Every structure is written in structure tokens, then in C-alpha cells.
Amino acid sequence: MRGFSLSPGLGVGCTLVAIVAALAAGCGGSGNGDGKEVVLVTHDSFAIPKQVQAAFEQESGLELTILQGGDAGEVVNRALLTRGDPQGDVLFGIDNNLLSRGLDEGLFEPYEAKGIDAVEAGYRLDPMHNLTPVDHADVCLNVDRMWFSSRGIPPPTSLDDLTNARYRKLLVVENPATSTPGLAFMLATIARFGANGWQDYWRRLRANDVLVVDGWEEAYTARFSGAGGSKGTRPIVVSYATSPAAEVIFAKTPPATAPTAAVAQSCFRQIELAGVLAGAKNVGGAHALIDFMLSERFQAAMPKSMFVLPVRTGTPLPDAFRRYAVSPAQPLELPAAEIGRNRDRWIDEWTRVVLR
Predict the structure, then answer these.
(1) CA distance 306 to 6
(2) What domains sit in the chain, N to C, each tagged with a CATH number?
(3) I need a labelling partner for 148 at 20 to 30 A (CA). Which of 26, 94, 182, 283 fits?
(4) 110: how many CB neighbours lie within 10 A of its CB?
(5) What is the DSSP letter of 162?
(6) Using CA atoms, how far apart are residues 182 and 185, in angstroms rounded to an integer?
(7) How far apart are CA 131 and CA 274, in angstroms?
(8) What is the pLDDT of residues 252-277, one digit of tens each?
């Protein structure tokens, strides 16, 4: 879902190089069209256990090929460039912040997935079933708990706190023009402060020496002081509600308490979706794959492989997620249609206020 992955695991399948080579050769989908292969186009954060992929292939009789190419925005943009002659059959990774772009351009064909009735209504963003919800992962402020406790400074508990002088030079964020977490955080401020107030909020953040970087990787692993192994100096970062659980799971010696914490009142809801690409070579295979992505097996595997949360009701979560991941009851949200109408203008306004 994410433009810049929290998951440290490596995905499977082909790389951007393979996609570019296919484009250069002038070919369309990499599927052979004989119904035995289904091709998933997705972002670099996609990763599922080998046994889960094997289960799909055994149950469906299909070979699953996975084409990964950059962040979610890059994947969607590339799909738009090859619209009608797509590189694959299913696109996964478009989220509620990019949804309108895909729908307005006719990028997908409708399909009502088996298992959609097990998905909570709040995640079903497209009543025409061009896109099927698969996971959600809130973008939230994360704080380095040790940094604050060792200095006797209370960590921020809301977006409003960040403009306080005590947090000067402590925050690192991602650029919304180049990062999907950065875009989600900008949208969070618009949801919180309104169309006429968010620009002033960012002026105050700029005055408080907010650091802006291009993407999540640099923000979290290089600039944030709380990431395992990081030499960063900033104890507040824009990341994910699941980041504290990841810190525990991937620690060499799992700590009794997560070293970081997500700030629940700052969280903006991101929902990732999948859709059948218009012009897909294997429409039947695409339907089978989307059905599988809503299955109990796939939904249960996502938290520890991609550090996202399932949309299927009743899906069990790993212990570290139950203990450390935040799932706010009332996250900050904006209607997808409103985001679609204003996204580019908002990014331009943000750039003028923060970077110029």
C-alpha cells in the first residue's frame, strides 16, 4: 500500500528492470494468454510467504507471476501508460489516496469478489466493484520512547503538539509529492485543520524546523532515532501504526516493550485495493487471484509479511500486532472523491508553503 515499504522482507517475482524491458520491447502483458498464468502487477512492498503462493497455485492450477516496480504511485502511473494493453492481469497496491485516478481513467474492469461480504463496509470504497479492498495500514506519527523518557520530555500525543517549541527540530516527514506516507500525512493535516487551516499549520511546522525527505526509507531508517540500528537524531517520524510491532519482531533480541510507539490521534487511514486490469489476458485467473487475496489464508499471512492489517473480519493477528500496533477507532479520513478532486492542487500548495 505503501510507496515506501515498512516491510524489510524481499518480494518475489520480477523487478522494475523486467517491466521496463517489456515496455521497450513493445509487448503488453507478460502472461501467455493460455489461462495457465496470472500476472500480478504491484509495488516493491508486496511480499507473501512461499507456502501461501504455493497454496494459491495448487488450488487454482495457475502459475502466479509477480511484477514489482517501485512505489504505489509509480505502479499506478505505469499502468495508466499501458492502459488497454496491461503488463499483467491484476493490479494490487492502489490506495484510497490514488483510487480516483485509476477509476477516472478506466483502468479496471468490475468484478465482485468472493468473500467481499466478510469485509467491513467501511473498507468497501467502490460500489461498482472495480476495486476490491485487501488491507489497511494507518499512517501515524511514531516516537522514540527512550529518547523522550531519558530527557524527561513528554512525547507528542496529537498533531497539534508538533508546533510546540519543545519539539523544535525533532520531526522528520516525507514529501507528499514523492512518498505515499508523506501524502497520507499531508491529508491527515487537511482532515484535522480543514481546507482553510492546514496551510498555516504547515507554516508553523516549518518555523519549528521540520525536516522533509523524499521517502519513508530515508525518514525511518536514516533520520529517525528510534529505528533499530539507525544513527538518526530525530525522535518523531511519519511512519505506520504497525511500525512498533515491526521493531519488536525484527529485533535480534525481542524486547519486552516496543521501543517506539504510534500516536493514535495522528493516524490517517490508508486502504489498499486490487483490481482486474482492463485488457487483462487472463480474466478468469484475475478473478481467482482477487478471491484468494480475500481468503482467510492470505489475509492471515499479510501482517507479518507486509506489515499491514487485514480487512476480512475475524482474521487473527500475531501477538506483536495485538500488543503494539495501533488501530484507532476513529482515524483521520477524507472521502476518496475529495482527495481525487484536490490532491494535485494540495500538493502544489504544500510545496509552496513548506519548500519554497
Answers:
(1) 8
(2) 16-136+270-324 (3.40.190.10), 139-268+328-354 (3.40.190.10)
(3) 182
(4) 11
(5) G
(6) 5
(7) 5
(8) 888 889 999 999 999 999 999 999 99
